[in-house]
Amino acid sequence: MKKWLMGLLMVSMAAVLFGCSSGTSSTGEVSVLDDGAGEEAVKLKYWTFVELHGQHFQSMLKNWNEDHPDRQIKLEVTVMPYDDMHNKLSIALQTGQGAPDISDIEVGKFPDFLNGTPQLEPLNDVVEPYKESIVQSRLDLYTKDGTIYGLPTHVGAAVAFYNTEILEEAGVDYKSIVTWEDYKKAGMAVYEKTGKYMGTADTSAGWQLSMMLAQQGSDFTDAEGKPVVNSPEMIKGLDILKDLQKNNVLATIAGGQPDTEEAYGEFNTGNYASAMMPFWFMSRYVNYMPDLQGKIAIAPIPVIEQGMPPSYGGGGTGTVVTKQTKEAQLAKDFLAYAKLTLDANINIWNTLGFDPVNTELWTQEDITHNKDNKFVQYFQNNPFEVLNEIKDGISLIKSTPASPTINNELYTTTLNEIFENDRDVTEALNAAQSQIEQQLK
Amino acid sequence: MESRERLSKILLFVFFSLLSLLVLLPFYAIAIASFKPGKELIRYGLNLQLDFSIMSLDNYVFLFSGQHDYFTWFTNSMLLTILQVALTLITSAAVAYGFTAYDFKGKTPLFICVLMIMMVPFEILLLPLYRLIFNLGLMNTYSSIILPGIASASTIFFFRQYLLGVPREMIAAGRVDGASEYGIFLRLILPVMKPAFAAMGILNAMGSWNNLLWPFMVLSNSSKFTLPIGLKTLLTPYGNNYDLLIVGSFFSIIPIFILFVMFQRYFIDGMTAGAVKG
Amino acid sequence: MVKRFLYSQKAAPYVFVLPFVLVFLVFWLYPLASSVEMSFQKVMLGQSAQWVGFDNYAKLIDDSMFLKAVMNSVIYTVLTLVILIPLPMLFAVLINAKFMWGRELFKSVFFFPALTSVVVAGTIFRLMFGEMEGSLINSFLALFGVEPVKFLKGHVTGFIALLSLAVWRWMGVNILYFLAGLKNIPEDYYEAASIDGASTFQKFRHITIPLLKPTTIYVLTISIYAGMAMFVESLMLWNGNNSPQNIGLTIIGYLYRQGIEKNNLGFAATVGLVLLLVTMIINLTQLALSGLFRKES
């Protein structure tokens, strides 16, 4: 008895105090991407909240290791839920301990990481060679005082996705929808004839709000970065959406916005005839809504008044190299290679279905119109035709230090009050404004 | 009288049978879901429909042969649970023995500390503890999970109650035989504590196996994650993870179920240990 | 010499309790003290702390979100008490009845849910209470012609989901507690009462309930403790700490949001201390009540 117990005790003690705290005893080889990497390869840690991003890195890693036999890399990918990954990264960077070499940061959270002295590596030098062909506004999102800290994955141009099967049933031609007024008429016809809703009234995300603001040349914050969520433009935009909801054109959706697993199900079943989402929502159709294959057409978003810029760049992920990396140059070079080169952008389009930031690619018809591409196959019209059409009407919605607080208030409370509880728009926005100001104090 | 009793017997049985069905319903729902593609679940919600045209063993095949970290997490959880339970039991038993077998200066105030700890929700200390672990450089280690709970107050309390029932003559006899103080504990006392060990072992194992919040705060690498944390990371709209999530959740219940069926008595003893202290 | 001392009967008890003393000092007392200190500071991990006096406390009093969190936790606790004490007590008495079939089986079945982790249970319940027509609860309601309910978006329905989860997980455990308590009631009490012609209900009212009081108090105490500290259930049910209009926000949830999500440790420590104060008051009241009971008997 005694020997057995003492043995166990000693072993466990030793394991706890030495084995585990050394931090080197990794058993999780499963998630290490080591395509073509030899013995000498340097191991880099990469955090993301999007599993697919890891897959993109995997294919780029293979090419990198072939092209750079003397600078080979192994990548350890950790995928965590959105909130958790950002919380952990924020803490790791502030404390100077435990951060990965490379990490994704979502655009809405990015300002948090630019506070004070950013604990991120400047990337200007590796961006320089590609500067001409990259959409500048996407780099601006991740730039502070002229220093670029994050590399974009996509433009995220917002477009409209129409389910033409439902529209035809209601006798509606999506090509004739130019303004929100047209959209309303079409939507009322759809509801009357099919009993289905034209679109979603989003309560947990601000894609629609951002479109409305972008079209009016406004933003969530003023020129100084102060929150102005009760601006006349905001009220006007929400009034339009609320009016659409009252007329059964829009309805709230399970999950609260199109980009949730519940909503994918609703769309796939054919309960909603359209979605207004950034370009990358294409990938959700292809991956999660198989029943809609061949039924979805892409078009510019309706505008409030003709001549307004229809679109804005929505969502986005800036990939960063943290100050804690011991291999800064290697990580930076690999990052540029994996996100900015033409090859990388072709791969981003081919595997992720995003609108690549390297515009050179937008006009290369052999890639954009490739018959074997699953995204090209899925949709009725070619996505890039719409993209090239709205190219000059893609505005920027800023991300500021106040953005995380604004987003939190609007997308957990305000929009729910307006669309679920029927609270007056102006009243709800005034309440949001004062709550946000209180929290930012 | 006879027939009335029979009637209540039947009524009671029917009532509790229905209640049992209600209790088992979620298990049944997830069991069915584990045979369906994750996309079905997302599209139609979790329900009880047995649709054999879409049901298959694909999820199980993926669980056992797919590219994912599930069994890394599973192994981590197992190791951590075993390690944590073994260390907690031995340490707590020693402390409890100290409190029962001896009279010493400061015994009463110390024991009040034990009682106090039992009353303070651990969650209150999350942040200072987090800062402490950080300052000690123990982030992302299993020590940060094991050490704070190694002398568990409720386990000490239970062991002490148990040891109060062990005759002091046993200790005296040991001393007469020339055994050292520690020898008595190791050779005489530990063997008689077996039933108490079983009860507390199971209780602690349940807690450790299912623990989420604290491990989740201190661990940050997929290769170190435990099962609950790993399963939680699958809950993201940015990955097609429902296939693994559901089958993985279902599979994670199975080991503890088997243990329960095998050692049911100890589970119940362990759970009710606190209630009967009187 | 040292070895001799360590092996002496004088030193041995201290050696035995040493692990506890260390854990108590390092992982309880020190964090608690630093919690108090932090509540007077502005602290962010990785930066040096600044003294701010009672700022955090003043901010807390003005904070409508904190109030909401407290209300949610209190309502949740009260409702769990209202459901999870009388029902398990009644069920335990019924299961314990001598004309009960399948006693052991039912005991096990009711206990099963307690074996599942909150992560798994919360996920199952989140899906069951989904707002789609095909989700379990809604498809059940549809049998009665009820339109699909958006359970996790409303205050009342959200709490129904949260309470269902709690009842499902803890009903069986509480039944076990009461069964253990019933074992301690001598059989002769009931026999004597029967001879006096007492009805079943009278026996329940005048023998079972009073003699179960120690068990009830125990269950009450741990339920209050668990209710006030509830967080992970809400986290899993809403798949995150941000529920629509914060209907699922609890005190610990708020502590987590401020401390971990916003790295505002000082303010979060203040939240924790308020919770500590509240639980201490409740516990002391508890102890006083149960002490009173002992004197009576």
Secondary structure elements and pairings:
The complex is a heterotrimer of chains A (441), B (278) and C (297).
Chain A: H1 2-20, E1 32-33, E2 42-48, H2 51-67, E3 73-79, H3 82-95, E4 102-106, H4 110-114, H5 124-127, H6 136-140, E5 143-144, E6 147-148, E7 158-163, H7 164-169, H8 180-194, E8 199-200, H9 207-215, H10 232-246, E9 250-251, H11 261-269, E10 274-278, H12 281-288, E11 296-299, E12 311-312, E13 317-321, H13 328-339, H14 342-352, H15 365-368, H16 374-378, H17 383-390, E14 394-395, H18 403-419, H19 425-440
Parallel strand pairs in A: 2-3, 2-4, 8-9, 12-14
Antiparallel strand pairs in A: 1-3, 4-13, 5-6, 7-10, 7-11
Chain B: H1 2-33, H2 38-44, H3 58-65, H4 70-101, H5 107-119, H6 126-135, H7 143-146, H8 153-164, H9 168-176, H10 181-192, H11 194-210, H12 213-218, H13 227-233, H14 242-262, H15 264-272
Chain C: H1 2-6, H2 12-38, E1 41-42, E2 50-51, H3 55-62, H4 64-84, H5 86-96, H6 103-111, H7 118-128, H8 136-142, H9 155-183, H10 187-195, H11 200-211, H12 213-228, H13 232-237, H14 251-261, H15 265-296
Antiparallel strand pairs in C: 1-2
Helix pairs in contact in C: 2-15, 3-15, 4-5, 4-9, 4-12, 4-14, 5-9, 6-9, 7-9, 9-12, 12-15, 14-15
